[in-house]
Structures are given as structure tokens and as C-alpha cells.
Amino acid sequence: MIDSTLSWNDHIVSLTSKLNKACYAVRMIKSCMSLDVLRMMCFSYVHSAITYGIIFWGNSHSSTTIFKIQKRIIRIINNSGRHDSCRKLFKKLQILPFASQYIFSVLVFVNRNRELFLFNSDIHGVNTRYNQNLHMPSTKLTMVQKGVLHSGSRILQLSAIED
């Protein structure tokens, strides 16, 4: 029998295990390596694992676990306490936090795949000030709303409002 539900939970469980191993490795080599080497290790092992398929699973509820492990690794690299804020530590190391990496990856996807998205001018011929904005399809299905196309349109629209 084939399971008809698609889920990224297996990927997140595997990723959690991989990141916990990376956390242990960073803790073990921290005393004999410089900050630059630890940062490079973080990019090569942790960052590459986190960004794999992030546009598909990054907005799932289980992704908070990944962010907590990412913060733990950042605190280990910086010799910080477990309750210290990581905001300045991420800036110091010039590493994007998980949520920022998700938003960045979705925006890169939207920019590279503009042909997959509809603009308001494609829907109607009226020349309005929002004519060149991406069309936000109306849907009530959570599965569609969490999809890359819908969330990409929404993120791009929100980033355009803030500019």
C-alpha cells in the first residue's frame, strides 16, 4: 500500500540528527580551532544541510527544532550561555538565521522562476499602480498557502511594501 500523504518530517528528523552531530563536532574542536575555521565549518556542514530543500519545508511547524539547533551551534562557537540572545551573534558571524535563510531562498526561487508566476497585468487589462505586482491567488487550502508559489508571491509582495 502506498502512503498518500507527503511530509517533510522524515527529512527534518534526519536533519535534526545531522545537526546534533555537527553540534557535538563543533563543541569538541572549538578549543583547538580559530573562530574563522569554526565559521567555515558552520557554513560547510550546517548551512548546507539546512538549505537543502528549505523552500519546501522551511515554513513547516517542525522547522523550529532546526532553528533551535542552529542557535545552539552559534552559541557554542561564541562561548555564550544557553539563555543568551543570538541576534548579535548571528550578525557577528555574518550567518543568516533560519527564518532569514528561508525568506532569502524563496525570494531567489521567485526571481529565477518568474515565468511560473502571474502578474496582475496577466489577469486584467486595467492599468493600475499594482499592475506589475505578482498576482495573489485566493485560496483557503492550507496546503496551497504553504506551497512555494503562494508563499513566494506573498513574501515578495510583503518585501515590496516595506521598500
How would you characterize this protein structure?
By secondary structure, the protein is mainly α. 63% of the residues lie in helices and 0% in strands. It has nine helices and no strands. It has helices at residues 9-29, 35-51, 54-57, 63-77, 87-93, 98-112, 120-123, 142-145, 148-162.
N-to-C SSE series?
HHHHHHHHH
As a percent range, the share of strand residues is under 5%
Q: Report, as a whole number of angstroms, the end-to-end distance.
A: 50 Å
Taken together, the total number of domains comes to 2
Structure described in brief:
The chain is 63% helix and 0% strand.
How would you describe this structure in keywords?
elongated; mainly alpha; 9 helices; 163 residues; 2 domains; 63% helix; single chain
Walk me through the topology.
Elements: H1 9-29, H2 35-51, H3 54-57, H4 63-77, H5 87-93, H6 98-112, H7 120-123, H8 142-145, H9 148-162
